[in-house]
Amino acid sequence: MLTNHEIDYKILGEEMQYVEVELDPGETAIAESGSFMMMDEGIQMQTIFGDGSQRQNNGGLFDKLLGAGKRLLVGESLFMTAFTNASNGKKQVSFASPYPGKIIPLDLLELGGKVICQKDAFLCAARGVSIGIDFQRRLGTGIFGGEGFIMEKLEGDGMAFVHAGGHVFKRDLAQGETIKIDTGCLVALTQHVNYDIQFVGGIRNTIFGGEGLFFATLRGPGAVWIQTLPISRLTSRILSYGTTNRKEEGSILGGLGNMLDGDGY
Prior knowledge:
alpha+beta; Double-stranded beta-helix; 6-stranded antiparallel sheet; 6 helices
């Protein structure tokens, strides 16, 4: 028997996507603060402490405070917003992505009841989905993993939606199959994928490679979601443009001036 609310959805848009969730009477969706975009009349909003999952509701005050503290570690707020259809017909509520990229629908029932994802990835979910943290056990992962030290876990048997930057694609790994990716490009993985951090190695790679000292090693079986544009990479590039005194195309040197600046692209 399903413990989470069953919701229908549509993902709309290209670079800046949003998900439209259809709620039957009495159904509820939960969302992170700041992701709400619009809703039909008849839907009621309620701020709740934590994620409102059955596991949290069955616990005492200490369990709720502990769960809230864990959510702070993954960059989420103490409170979430529940959107409940209080009318007699179907209603829609929509949630928007925070930056250019893709919204990924995750059917937790089909994915074994648990998905581990990067911090701040959660967008919204069906009522009953539990949002917590997943500590990495390896010392190397904890020290050098970057985004991978404390990851977010989504548990339940309903739909959940996460967001990632740029183009996002899914890679299914066979038993023992291994891939190596930049730690920031890892979006999510199913619970049976083995995740570790590996040193790039080599003096030239370390000093001149420009790709960081470590990458994530993922070993199947399971599914992995990968993004082409981590938000950390996007923000660092924007900051580098904003803090550099660049020559514009209207200047005497134009593009040549940018090349002399070392920004010849």
